[in-house]
Amino acid sequence: MKLFSGTSNPSLTKKVSDLLKIPLSKTEVKNFDNSEVRVRILDDVTDQACVIIQTTSNPTNSSLMELFFYCDGLKRGEAKKIIGVIPYFGYARQNIQHREGEAVSVNVVIRFLETVGFDEICAFDIHDEGTGGIFSIPFHNLSALPSLATSVKDYLTKRKVHKENIVVASPDQGGVERARIFGEAFFGNDNFSLVVVEKKRDLENIHKSHTVDLHGEVLGKTVILVDDIVTSGGTLLNAASLCLKKGAKSVLAVIVHPDFSKKAPKKIQQSALQAFFTTDTINLDPSKKFDKLKVVSIAPLIAGELKELK
């Protein structure tokens, strides 16, 4: 197996390389002043199974084009099989036509991936699991939620917070299944309290939403808010504020993908959240790190999956 790293998250790929004891294959990526990118494969990949790890977070379009060019270069090098590992799948939230005239952008991205020549795609906690059904090539939707559950459990155990005083919450109606998956991993069964925050989104203004109500009991409890992505932090922090208003003792956040806007880290750090657990699906610039941030690596999950795919 040949392992390649895109430029979006090289530290994650290095961790996977170390775990698998497979050296990173040599490439050359050139970014031009006119914003174009050129990718060149420097290793011999003839009849080899090749894996390219590239998260498609901000700058999403540039990351995607680089990924497409990697695949084309490998295809031209006569690779036997090309597997794309996309820890954070850009455009996954644009999976529905909310208003007339809108593109369903994730469908377009999937068609590009298939057409350029990928044989398989792996991603983590894609926004809507139904998106996997759009692929005509094998698609593996892995989950970081069990790993996050283990870290949160260790954190709360050290603080002597007992399970009977903990509830799991979804910050909106669409994330109930994610919260349930986390809860089952955290408690080891399906016998736990699940709270849902009702939210309304402003379709005319991006990153704008407001909470309407809370369904479930949080009085005196430690609340674990679970979601797949945070960008502005509005949905999450509104949900946290509502839980505290309803009498929650404390609130923690568990988010798979830290797709932070510029102002989000400061807002989260200054909020009433006790801690913010996330993963390294997205490589965070030092300016976007903060004291409440706790990062769990998905490298062992990728390494395990690639061993199976070999």
UniProtKB/TrEMBL annotation:
<feature type="domain" description="Phosphoribosyltransferase">
    <location>
        <begin position="151"/>
        <end position="266"/>
    </location>
</feature>
<keyword id="KW-0545">Nucleotide biosynthesis</keyword>
<protein>
    <recommendedName>
        <fullName>ribose-phosphate diphosphokinase</fullName>
        <ecNumber>2.7.6.1</ecNumber>
    </recommendedName>
</protein>
<dbReference type="GO" id="GO:0002189">
    <property type="term" value="C:ribose phosphate diphosphokinase complex"/>
</dbReference>
<comment type="similarity">
    <text>Belongs to the ribose-phosphate pyrophosphokinase family.</text>
</comment>
<dbReference type="InterPro" id="IPR029057">
    <property type="entry name" value="PRTase-like"/>
</dbReference>
<dbReference type="GO" id="GO:0004749">
    <property type="term" value="F:ribose phosphate diphosphokinase activity"/>
</dbReference>
<feature type="domain" description="Ribose-phosphate pyrophosphokinase N-terminal">
    <location>
        <begin position="1"/>
        <end position="117"/>
    </location>
</feature>
<keyword id="KW-0067">ATP-binding</keyword>
<dbReference type="Pfam" id="PF13793">
    <property type="entry name" value="Pribosyltran_N"/>
</dbReference>
<dbReference type="GO" id="GO:0000287">
    <property type="term" value="F:magnesium ion binding"/>
</dbReference>
<keyword id="KW-0460">Magnesium</keyword>
<dbReference type="InterPro" id="IPR029099">
    <property type="entry name" value="Pribosyltran_N"/>
</dbReference>
<dbReference type="InterPro" id="IPR000836">
    <property type="entry name" value="PRTase_dom"/>
</dbReference>
<keyword id="KW-0808">Transferase</keyword>
<keyword id="KW-0479">Metal-binding</keyword>
<keyword id="KW-0547">Nucleotide-binding</keyword>
<dbReference type="GO" id="GO:0006164">
    <property type="term" value="P:purine nucleotide biosynthetic process"/>
</dbReference>
<dbReference type="InterPro" id="IPR005946">
    <property type="entry name" value="Rib-P_diPkinase"/>
</dbReference>
<dbReference type="Pfam" id="PF00156">
    <property type="entry name" value="Pribosyltran"/>
</dbReference>
<dbReference type="GO" id="GO:0016301">
    <property type="term" value="F:kinase activity"/>
</dbReference>
<dbReference type="GO" id="GO:0006015">
    <property type="term" value="P:5-phosphoribose 1-diphosphate biosynthetic process"/>
</dbReference>
<dbReference type="GO" id="GO:0005737">
    <property type="term" value="C:cytoplasm"/>
</dbReference>
<keyword id="KW-0418">Kinase</keyword>
<dbReference type="GO" id="GO:0005524">
    <property type="term" value="F:ATP binding"/>
</dbReference>
